[in-house]
Each structure stands twice: as structure tokens, then as C-alpha cells.
Amino acid sequence: MAVQRPTAYLNARLVDPDSGYDGPGALIVAEGVIADVAHRPQFDGLSADVQVVDCDGAALVPGLIDIRVKTGEPGAEPKETLKSASRAAAAGGVTSIVIQPDTDPAVDEPAVLDFILRRARDIELVHVHAAGAATRGLKGVNMAELGLMAEAGALYFTDVDHAIADSKVFRRVLSYARAFGRPIAHRPADPYLTIGAVATEGELAGRLGLPSAPDVAERIMLERDLALAQLTASRLIVDQITTAGALESLDRARAQGVDVVATASINHLSFNEVDIGDYRTFCRLDPPLRAEADRQALIEALASGLVQVVTSAHTPAPPEDKRLPFAEAAAGAVGLETLLPALLTLHHESRCPLIDLIRAVTLAPAELLGLPAGRLRRGAPADLALCDLDAPVVVDAEKLLSKSKNSPFDGRRLQGRVLATVVDGRTVYRADIP
Amino acid sequence: MIDTPDIEGLVAKRMFALSGRHFISVASLNRPEAERLLDLADAFVSLSRAREKKLTLLRGRTLVNLFFESSTRTQSSFEIAAKRLGADTVNMSPRTSSVTKGETLIDTAVTLNAMKPDLLVVRHSASGAAALLSQKVGCSVINAGDGWHEHPTQALLDALTLRRAFGSVEGLVVAICGDVLHSRVARSNVGLLQLLGARVRLVGPPTLMPTGADQWGAEVFHDMRAGIAGVDVVMMLRLQLERMDGAFVPSTREYFRFFGLDAEKLSLAKPHVRVMHPGPMNRGVEIESGVADNLDVSLIQQQVEMGVAARMAVLASLAAQLDEPTLSNRGG
User: Fold this and answer.
1) Catalytic annotation on B101?
2) CB of B215 within 8 Å of any CB in chain A?
3) Is A387 helix (H, G, I), strand (E, B) or coil?
4) Residue A138 DSSP label
5) CB atoms within 10 A of CB B226
6) Residues B153, B188: Cα–Cα separation, whole Å
7) Inter-chain contact B128–A325, Cβ cutoff 8 Å?
8) Pairing relation of β-strands A184-186 and A236-238?
9) ipTM of this model?
10) Across the strands, what pairs with A38?
11) d(CA B75, CA A223)
12) What is each CA distance from A118 to A82, A86, B272, in whole angstroms?
């Protein structure tokens, strides 16, 4: 790599959850790391070889860390490749992504993990990490090679959208992974209550004639997961909590000292079940969209710190999987490019402090997974997102860089946009602003 | 006896019964539209009973019956309705053609659309399928049943049957009984009958009642005797055995004991009570033959007859929409 001149970012609004600072600031990047941080807009006596970027009041935040990203590589490259996902991430201010193991073949042994990390290394856009499967073939029966995958770099283990129904298997996975210092992520959904369901049970789903499952399906499974996390003294990641009832369970468990971190997807923070009213398949998600009261409870839980991490739950699905009747369409939405603008919109709409929202996509996931990024601290990787907090944008799915365009934000007005993205000191994305 | 020119005249006056290009859901109707459709359908009943049944309103038009789920009754009803209006009809059952080769619903529709049909009647097992199709094709789409969601022409024919039997739907108390959860007929009827001023009750075991049905404006009963006490009309639903992927009810005999319609339960309704069923019936499961075949109370045969007239009304109204650009050209 060519030797880079040091770069000074001046006149910025620094938002750094690590130091708790949100205010005027400046920052110097050299040799891929943050060399200096100032809580004033300028540095005195910059040497002449320093390249200067005038941020003109725009916000400089740590690059986002998105711990739940699916691509189609290997196995379903027309949906999304590691390269297209990396480009989408860069355009969204996301500088680290954690690839989900439900590829084809699944990441349930170190060779597939190696393949993904090796492929990603050559792209040189954003940091690509990977999670491993908790059970072989994501089938919930036999434990996958957790130790070997941990050694190969797996940050955590998950069967993604597949519930591990067998409590004995789940218990063993939790306790075994603990020996390697890796958490287990599990999406709580009672597998029997949710068979065939594509919506949240209620008046709307009933009227639309859609197969639905009651929201307690989430709380039922979560209670089991929390009890087993407590029993095994293991760290649990609650993948995509969505209901008010489950949040109450989470709150109780946290109070009892259970080692648990909950994530929320940006979709469940931004949409509610009414958005499926005209059978819009871009809003067909798994877990399904919930009632507005659940969405409000989720926002509140994020503001209070009960929910610590926000993800894009990036799930590319091409038209052939989405242009189908609602119940037959694939679940999921792309989200890498809209994550930050949607979070900023949430800040404008909910009075949730900006620094708390930024923490949920930077410092919190970094601490959860032991990554050095996610902070504006001297010596940390120079992973940065420069954004205009107030610019209005209308999302046009066709313009997204993901290979799949299934964004529920298509046509939505958001407030906030990414101006530039920096990874290890290199600018990997710059918005062309007319 | 009414002769053809009179019907044409009546039809011309009632033509613009629908404001949209498609007929997907009863939710899109307002009361005057629904009443006009029923008036028009009434006129078509007379026509259908006459010796000469053919009109030319849809001459030159092509109607495609696209049935992803098999149906004898509804498909032939649409076909006869279209032919009486002079349209050419094509029946397609894609289950046996390229859909099994991986072609999607949309691909099939776009392919058909390229052949320039004017009216596309679609039945599909997924809720929302008709609405989805209507966004992708240039012709008028008529929903002949989408999953559990709606079957609007069935509701229209039921309303027509009731209006002719009672003079008006306004003020009638109608109990819709049985498998409401999986029933598109129930959802369309709840909407349309309430629009026309009826009071609707929903009767069935809790496992076959959608969550939130009590918020549809209807009263919900889990005890059939209480549910049909004092009603004017009992509308039975088919217990859709083919849709039961779990044990919603313990057995058919237990179901019949508590939710099947027999003469004894029926005696709790008003003396002039009439019984309806969208067909096909599971005799001895949801209705006993003695009730179904009792011509003093059963409207089941009339429903089938009214089906053709109601569908003629929908087709004629939509075809009038197709003509609209021509009319406005003439005006300019």
C-alpha cells in the first residue's frame, strides 16, 4: 500500500461514545490509525505535509460496525457478493461488517470461514468479519466446530434465522462456546408457534388473511434462552428483539445479572405492522413487523440502554424472491446503506440523543465482539463516517449499491446522509453532492 | 318478460357502478356503488332466465380465467357470465402448466398480459395475489379468491340473493358460522353486508376465529346456539379440510355436534330464517342434508344462480371502464 500523508479533519462535530464527547472537534489520521483527537475545531501548528479536510461542521463519527449482514457468497452470488456488500457498506458509513453463516455451504467449519475471510481481504474496502454456525448445517442438532472456527476468526456463533429448538443442544452450545470466549447469538422465536407465520397475529393480519403468530412466541423462547445463559454463565446475544413483552423479560434478566446483550434491527425501529397493509413484500421481515406500541417500547429500550446494539439485518433478496404474493415472498430487507440515515432520522423523530444511537452501531458492538474500532481514540483504527445530520433524502432503492434492491425504505424520506467513509485512513466512499 | 333492448337501456344507465379498474376487495366499494352493482345484477337475473341470453356488451373483449387453485363452480360461473355478455373466454389452470417449471405468478401474468386480454379473473392460494397481479398488468383484474383474504364476487352474489329473498339487506341479522379463520368468503361478506346495513355475527370455535375479528364490527360467538338465536340468515362456511395443517378441531363429529347446522339448532333462529352456503358443502360436517335440501329455508341453489348475474354485473361495469378513454376522446 502506498504511504499515505497524514490527514487532518478540521471543523467537525465529533460524536464519540467512547469518551462521551459530542461537540466541535478535529482529528488527525496517520498510518491508518487515529493519531490525535482535539475537542476544538482546529489543531495549532499543523506541519505542512498534513493534508487538510475541512468538514465544515459535518458530524464525524466512528465508522459503523454492523454485526448482522448476509451476502450470497458463497452459494447465491446473484443476491449479493462480498464485494457488492462491501461497496454498499462503504456507501452507508459502515466500516466493519460481520457476515452471517447461513451461506451455501454454511459456515460451520473453518474452511468455509477461511474462504470468506480470504475473499474479503482482496476487496480492500471495509473490514469483513464472520460469524460461525452454532450447529452443523444450522440444523440445531449437532454442535459445529466452534473451537476451530474461533481460532480461524469467528467472532460469535449463531444459527441465524433457525431456532435451536432442542434446549439440551442450546445449553451445550452456550457452555462450550464460553470456553473460547465467544458469545452465542439466538433469535428468540418459538419454532412451533411460528411455523408458516408471516405476520404478527392481530386484527390487521386477520383482516389481510395472512398466517400469523402471536408476539408471545418471542418471549417464550427468550425466557428459555435467558435461563440457559444464566445456568451456563455464558454470554448470550439476543438477536433482533422486537416485542414489549420480551423487553420486560430482558430487563428482569439483566437485573439478575445474566450476561446478555440484545440487538434490534433498524427495520423494527423504523416500521410497524401497518406497513404490510398493502401486502408490500419489502416489509415482509423475519421476525415480522410488530405493533406500534412494540416499536415505541423498542425505541425506549434503545434510549435506556436495555437494547445495546442496532444492526441493519442486511438480507438481500432479488426480485424473483420478492415479487411474489406476501406469504410466499422471501423474508428480509437490505439495510447497509440506509442504516445510518435511518438512525439519524430516528434521532430527529424520537429525541433519542445522537450519541446514544451512534453508540449502538459503534462502541457497543465493538465491545461486544472485542474489536478495536468504533471509537475516536488515539491509536484506534481510522474508521470514520462523515455525515450531514440534517440533509433530507428520499431513498431510491434502484440507486442502492447492493445487488438486491429490497429496501423497505424505498420512497421514504429520511433525514441525514453519509458524506464520506474512511477505513484504515483510506477514503473508501465519497458522496457526489450536486 | 323483459326483452333485450330494455336490459341494454338499464345496463347503460347503471354502467359506471365501479370507480376502479379492478375488483379486488369489497373494501374499495362505497354503498351507492354496491347498490348500483346489485341493481345491475338484478337486471341480469331476468336476462339469464329469458330464452335469448346473449348480450353484446363485451363483444370483442377477451376474458381469461386464471385459476391457480382448482374450482369448478366459480370458474364456470365467470365463464358463463362472460359468454352471456358476448366476450371470448380462455380458461387457464397454471397448476398443470409452466408454473410447475418455476415460472412465477408475475411471469405468468406478464406473459398473459402480452396477449392483450381485457379482463383477468384470478384465483390464487396466497392472500394479496390478486392485488399483486393488478400492479403488473394492463387489463382489469377480478379477484376470484386470494388465500384467506377476499372473494368479493361471492359476497356480491350473497348480497344479491339476500336482497331478492328479503327485499333489502338493511337491518338483517346474519350469522356467519364455521371456519372464519381460513375463509375469504367470510371476510368479504363481513365487509359488504355491513356496508349494506346488515348486522353480522361471527360464530365458530376460538381456534377457527381470527384474532381481532371482534374489531371488524361484527359480534363474535363461540356458542352456536347463542350465535344463531334470533337471526334472519345463517350463512354456513365450508370446514376447509384441505387447509387444516394442524388440529383446529378434535374431530369432524365433535365439530358437527357443536358447530354443525341441524334443524334443532336452526329452530333457535327467527321463524323465517334462510340458510346459505358458498359451496361445496361437506354434508354431515358443517350442515346436515335435511337443512341444506329444505327448499323452504335453503337459498343455496339461488346463490349459484345469482353468482352468474353478480359476475355479469362486475364484468359489465369493468368493461365500461375499459371503454372510458374512447368516450373522453369523443368528448374532446
Assistant:
1) yes
2) yes
3) strand
4) G
5) 13
6) 9
7) yes
8) parallel
9) 0.85
10) A26
11) 50
12) 11, 14, 79
Q: What amino acid is encoded at B54 in this protein?
A: K
- The bridge status of strand A426-430 relative to strand A157-158 is unpaired
Count each helix (H run) and each strand (E run) in chain B, helices first.
12, 9
List the helix and strand counts (H, then E) for chain A: 13, 18
Phi-psi region of B155 (alpha: psi -120 to 50; beta: other; left: phi over 0): alpha
B123 tagged catalytic: yes
Q: Give the H or E element holding residue A345.
A: helix A339-350
Q: List, in order, residues 6 or more apart from A122 with CB less than 8 Å away.
A: none
Residue by residue, pLDDT tens for chain A (434 residues) are 456 789 999 999 999 999 999 999 999 999 999 999 999 999 988 888 999 999 999 999 999 999 999 999 999 999 999 999 999 999 999 999 999 999 999 999 999 999 999 999 999 999 999 999 999 999 999 999 999 999 999 999 999 999 999 999 999 999 999 999 999 999 999 999 999 999 999 999 999 999 999 999 999 999 999 999 999 999 999 999 999 999 999 999 999 999 999 999 999 999 999 999 999 999 999 999 999 999 999 999 999 999 999 999 999 999 989 989 999 999 999 999 999 999 999 999 987 899 999 999 999 999 999 999 999 999 999 999 999 999 999 999 999 999 999 999 999 999 999 999 999 999 999 998 75
A326 touches chain B (CB under 8 A): yes
A20 — alpha (psi -120 to 50), left (phi > 0) or beta?
left
Whether chain B has a CB inside 8 Å of the CB on A122: the answer is no
Q: What residues have CB less than 8 Å from A53, skipping those under 6 apart?
A: A7, A8, A9, A10
- Before B325, cis peptide (omega within 30)? no
The amino acid that residue B301 corresponds to is Q
Look up B21 and say whether it is catalytic: no
The set of residues, in sequence order, having a beta carbon less than 8 Å from that of B186 and lying 6+ positions away, is B176, B180, B202, B237
Evaluate whether A94 touches A65 at the Cβ level (below 8 Å).
yes
End-to-end CA distance of chain A: 31
Q: Which of A174, A181, A184, A180 is nearest to A237 (CA)?
A: A184
Contact B126 A327 (CB under 8 A): yes
For residue A300, the surrounding DSSP H or E stretch is helix A292-304
Give the closest-approach CA distance of A336 to chain B in angstroms: 27
Task: At A362, list the grid cell.
Answer: 459503534
- A374 with A65: CB under 8 angstroms? yes
Q: Are strands A59-62 and A7-16 parallel, antiparallel or unpaired?
A: parallel
Q: What is the DSSP-derived secondary structure letter of residue A175?
A: H
Residue entry with cell 374450482: B71
Is A207–B126 a contact, with Cβ atoms under 8 angstroms apart?
no
Residues in chain B: 332
Query: What is the C-alpha separation between A324 and B305, in angstroms, rounded?
Result: 34
Q: Rounded to 5 degrees, what are φ and ψ at A158?
A: -160, 150
What residue type is A129 in one-letter code?
H
